[in-house]
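Hi Q.,

Before the meeting this afternoon, I wanted you to have the iron/sulfur cluster prediction in hand. No need to reply - just skim if you have a minute. The sequence and ligand are here:
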Amino acid sequence: MTKIKQSPFCHFFKKGDMICAYHAIRMKALYFNQKYEEELQRYLANGEEKKISKRTKEIIEKMQQNQMIVSDNFDKNAYMQTLLPLMKKKPNVRVMVLHMTDICNLRCRYCFIEGNIQSDYKRKNMTPEVIEKAIDKFMQLTLPKKFKKKPAIVFYGGEALMNWSVMLHGLQYLAEQYPQADVDKVLITNATLLTDEIAHALKKYKVGVSVSIDGPKNCHDANRIYRDGKGSFEDAVRGFEILRKAGIEPSASCVMSKETVEQAEEVIQWLVEKMHINALGFNHVSIVPSLNYYDEKYENAFADAVLKVQDIIQKKYPHVYERRMNQKINCYIDKQIIRADCTGCGEQFSVSTTGEVGICQGYMGSRKTFNNSVLDPDFNPNTDEVFMEWATRSPFTMPECYDCAALATCGGGCPRNADVLSGSIWKRDLPFCHFAKKAQEWLIWKQFELEPEQVDYIR
Ligand code: SF4
Ligand code: SF4
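Predicted structure with the ligand bound:
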């Protein structure tokens, strides 16, 4: 008789009197009543069961078909090695983050850029020469290629609109020099400096706008303040109105901080009903040693809040897209593994105000990974060692993650957070890990709740 065992990728979830056996790589879920659990566990422990009910037999067969039960000599690490060629990608950059400026008119309490800037750091604006060189480099890398997702240029800061004249110069340069380029353009802004003139130019150059807004006044002004401590809420809302008047439909980027995480319900209601937002993303506060350290209680509250908001969205606002959860829902439904969550893992390069090229905007203050320059005509991030290392980071290349039920839906979060917390991008991003695990369980039971007839359910 062949000896068998529960696959290391098979995880059991319980809810009420229901059990779900779930394969973390195949993303296959099998539901059954807990009355069959004892028999099943005896079978898994002994490899046979003399008196076995018809239903338990069915469960065992389904589990075998879906490799949730494997032969006793199945080797998890050897199996993961076979997946490495699929998971270890080479860099193929298609996103360029332009740091238009190191200067910001706000002093948001949780800002990870500000939190990383040293006191002797010389703040600068990007010059027209640097933005031209950056665009040339981006075009040199992307124009000859075809990508599944459209290439994108992200205008970032500081507050990018503090250097509007150079941003406008870049948009004009791109349109004139590369009229054939099919590139998304995205501005990340606090919206407080918007004018009709700027909004019209953004519309003309088809720039998507993501506004950082944290909810109604009490939530927004808890952190998003001017240097004098005054809240920026009214100015941000005015920015929204200016964009809409110009025919731009902004998306929202919303940080749920310790101060606001308990008010998630109020925040989503306000964003959708008062601000008429259709697309948004919830963010948690990034790890900055001098500012925000890892706090398990907050991370759990953040994960619960995002899931609670998703429940509300599904019930009341099904037209609304929330990036963080929708990405996971799509991955789960389509059974498409999220190899890496961060575009820095092979798809992105960032350009500093002075033209240095690195991976992640979160290192702008320290310039970690910023080892090259757009002024170097020979520099190619796709063949650079640091970019090559980042491109291979995925839960599928991190043995710490192999036993995790969220392996296929996680993506591994933010390598910078992992590095800041543990000194290496190869460690887990602990804050994200809380969320990814809770989201996995939510996906399993949400699908059962919404589609009981579509799932594999042995009654
Ligand atoms: S490492 Fe983190 S902060 Fe940097 S680009 Fe990736 S997700 Fe964003
Ligand atoms: S980072 Fe955490 S949640 Fe994601 S796969 Fe690894 S262990 Fe699982």
